[in-house]
Amino acid sequence: MVIERASNRCEYCQLHQMNAFHKHQIEHIIALKHGGSSDLGNLALACTHCNFHKGTDLSTMLLPNRELVPLFNPRAHRWDEHFYMEDCVFYAKSKIGEATIKVLKMNDVDLIIFRQML
């Protein structure tokens, strides 16, 4: 059900499973250690890169104000309200988008090149 709901795309970077080197993973949006559950409403499909970098994180500090900002939650937020992509680079429309791009390292040079090749 998680895979079907996500249409085989990473719910963070939107990479389709058929373009990934490794099988996408089902991840806990709120990690079990933070009180999350394994209910469908707390699960998301994530590529290995996004899942690895997100880990159990829920938020990050954004500079210069050291403001604590939550990460994107695919069950609570709409992707297009927080991100857009231009020339294979992700840009934030919100602080949530900025925080998520930072923590998940969505604009690593290797990923930008990979997206350009696709």
Provide an overview of this structure.
This protein is α+β, with helices and mostly antiparallel strands and 118 residues long. The chain has one domain (2-117). 25% of the residues lie in helices and 20% in strands. It contains four helices and six strands; from the N terminus they run H-E-E-H-E-E-E-E-H-H. The chain has helices at 2-5, 48-54, 95-103, 109-117; strands at residues 25-28, 43-46, 59-62, 67-70, 83-86, 89-92. The strands form three sheets. A two-stranded antiparallel sheet has the order 1-2. It is globular and about 40 Å long. The model has no long low-confidence stretch (mean pLDDT 97).
Protein topology:
Layout: H1 2-5, E1 25-28, E2 43-46, H2 48-54, E3 59-62, E4 67-70, E5 83-86, E6 89-92, H3 95-103, H4 109-117
Antiparallel strand pairs: 1-2, 3-4, 5-6
Could you say how many structural domains there are in total? 1
For the largest beta-sheet, the strand count, sense and barrel status come to: 2 strands, antiparallel
**Overall mean pLDDT:** 97
Elements, N to C (H/E): HEEHEEEEHH
Taken as a percent bin, the fraction of beta residues is 15-25%
Gyration radius (Cα, Å) is 14 Å
The helix/strand class is alpha+beta
Shape: globular
Q: Which stretches are low in confidence, meaning pLDDT under 50 for 5 or more residues running?
A: none
**Strands ordered across the widest β-sheet:** 1-2
